[in-house]
Structure formats: C-alpha cells, structure tokens
Write a structure and sequence with these properties.
By secondary structure, the protein is an alpha+beta fold. The chain is built from three helices and five strands.
Length: 102
C-alpha cells in the first residue's frame, strides 16, 4: 500500500474533518461552558450581575441553585443562577481592622 492509495481513500479526509470540527467548534464551546460554570460557582453577595434577560442587579443572597438580586431599591428578584450571563463588578474582600489603621 503506497501513499497515493492512502490519500485517495475517504478515511483520511473524514479524520481531518473530525479534527477540524473538534478544534473549531467543540473545544471552544467546552471552554466557554467551563468558564461560565466557574463564574457561577464564584458568585457571592455584593457582585453586580447581568442576567440573560438583560437585567442588571446586585446579588443579595446566593443559594445552591438560586440567587436573589436587587434590581433597584426595594425590588428583589429570585432567579436561577445559571441564567446569570456576566458578572460586572466583583466585590473585593474588606481589609481587616488592623490593616485599615496603618
């Protein structure tokens, strides 16, 4: 079996197409899904978030599968955490009292 007969076979072309699909479609989608999952797991009180519906609010409480966000003063909405599309401002941990006095 020589190289020309191998290249004329449809098998190498199918393998090449499979690799192209993997690296251009499947792998980037898996990476985005992992980044979104990590963002949701890191969600905490005080973060400013944007939902998939375009609502912007501040996180008041985070539960296992749900979060409560405040859209405006006195308007609280309970939503599924996976509907959060982006975290705009992450809250920074406050310094300890002794660090603030120096």
């Amino acid at each position: 079996m020589n190289l020309q007969t191998i290249l004329e076979s449809p098998i190498p072309m199918l393998v090449l197409m499979g690799l192209v699909f993997y690296f251009l479609l499947i792998r980037p989608q898996q990476k985005r899904a992992k980044e979104h999952r990590d963002m949701i797991e890191a969600l905490k009180r005080g973060d400013v978030v944007v939902t998939q519906g375009g609502l912007v609010g501040k996180v008041l409480k985070v539960e296992e599968a749900e979060a409560v966000i405040e859209l405006s003063k006195g308007v609280e909405v309970r939503l599924i955490k996976h509907t959060i599309a982006d975290v705009r401002n992450r809250t920074e941990p406050k310094p300890a009292n002794d660090a603030a006095n120096t």
